[in-house]
Amino acid sequence: MTTTSTAADELLLPVPDEDGAPFWEYAAQGELRVQACAACGRLRFPPRPCCPHCRSFDSEWRRMSGRGRIWSYVRPHPPLLPAYAAQAPYNVILVELADAPHIRLAGNLVTSADAPLDSVDPARLRIGARVHVVFTETGGMAVPRWILEKS
Amino acid sequence: MTATLKDATAIVGIGQTAFARHLPQSEKELACRAILAALADAGIEPSEVDAFASYTMEETDEVEVAKAIGAGDVTFFSKIGYGGGGSCATVGHLASAVATGQATVGVAWRSRKRGSGPRPWKNTAVQLPTPGQWTRPFGLLRPADEIGMLARRYMHEYGATRDHLFNVAMACRNRANANPAAMMYERPLTREMYMTSRMISDPLCLFDNCLETDGALACVVVSAERARDCRQKPVYVHSVAQGLPAQHHGMVNYWNDDPLSGPAWTAARHLWKQADFGPQDVDVAQIYDAFTPLIPLSLEGYGFCGRGEGAAFTEGGALEMGGRLPVNTGGGGLSEAYVHGFNLINEGVKQLRGVSTSQVPDATTCLVTAGEGVPTSAILLRS
């Protein structure tokens, strides 16, 4: 486990663990990849050492299309950590992946990769809306964000 | 299998401190006061206590408590994880220990200074890498944000509305308005107040959230045989269950195949299997309510209605006095006090003693549940 310190005025950075590290390494290359069992092929999330279906410890990271739909969303208001309060109310969406609908990634719907977390008009948030992934660079990491398919 | 916990033990003492946004005493002192009050209620000497059970999140450990209250040699101690999910399991663990002869007098407790103390989600230095790495950077920071995500989906799938969540908040507030010990005793709630209150994590508003509370509670568990000689009418521990469903992920159960089917369903299957009665026979229920959506989800999980019917169940005053299922008759976490659900255990005991401030006439059975949305626990009590 690596530790990453984040200043109080910055958004939190992911703190990858051993199982999750490849996700972030692929993200740094602009790729959205999900762990799959190398034996039975089933995708799983969050990543973990062993396949819950066939108990194989061999895994691979399969590239996703980067498309999905909004499964649900919230709009947090303060009290929040300062960096988040500064952008509140923002959105957090849960995206079910088009390639694997049972895998749902938390993220933020934004107007462009580097736009603020509150950049999308809340009226446009809708369960079922189609989105695709983009990546933003922050604190030396690439973090996925999501853009509406229809603008 | 011949061994059973069914009615083998009973809760014979309950105790609590005041509930407030700020209490001057330390958590340790509050814990000791609640435990001593529970033992006095039972008429049992502190030196007889030989078992302790609490939550892993309880800061006051059994070494300190045993020393302070003057317990004798302790032969059983246990801590249950997952915050509010552990509340009922504390009673379950003591019941198991007493029924199997590992101990004779068990005390369960929870002491907490959440009203005046720090909020756990602010301590980002100790955020777990999993699943924190998949949620925290995106601004899912607090339990309200995590449950709000499930609530929005639940509303979308089943046509639940904010009015349904208001029904839950209102039932708890009405009971608190009758309970002088409740933090919201003299503070009525109206629909207008609810609908115009500030959002915490839209779709959840201020009144969908439990109270920030300082306070402590405790209860005493002994064998059914011993209970007959105690000062109070015994409240029997009829059935106990814990539940950690397959492929469950904790508060962020978004990666389960069916995130809206939570741990309540798993705990309920075991709870009812061990019981002589079913949901239709429950006179009153104390259902964990850190957030209003947990009530409809739990009503479904524990079998009071079908899947997706929990919101509609709250209509027509069903949760109020005289309704189909009066809930959280002390005011619950939403309006009495939020002490990780321990007040629900003690309120269940009060109902079966017949001394609740919102007494359900002739109540003889009570369901108490622990936190839904995390690995959970539940107990069935009967008089």
Automatic annotation (TrEMBL), chain A:
Signal peptide segment: none
InterPro entries, per the entry: ChsH2_C, ChsH2_Znr, NA-bd_OB-fold, Thioester_dehydratase-like
Gene3D superfamilies (UniProt xref): 6.10.30.10
Residues annotated as domain ChsH2 rubredoxin-like zinc ribbon: 24-58
Domain ChsH2 C-terminal OB-fold per the UniProt entry, residue ranges: 61-135
Protein name: OB-fold domain-containing protein
Annotated organism of origin: Streptomyces nojiriensis
TrEMBL record, chain B:
The name this protein goes by in its record: Lipid-transfer protein
Domain spans labelled Thiolase C-terminal: 257-376
Pfam families the record matches: Thiolase_C_1
Database matches in SUPFAM superfamilies: Thiolase-like
Protein source organism: Streptomyces nojiriensis
Signal peptide span: none
CDD domains assigned to the protein according to its UniProt record, in alphabetical order: SCP-x_thiolase
Tree of life domain: Bacteria
Listed NCBIfam families: PRK07855.1
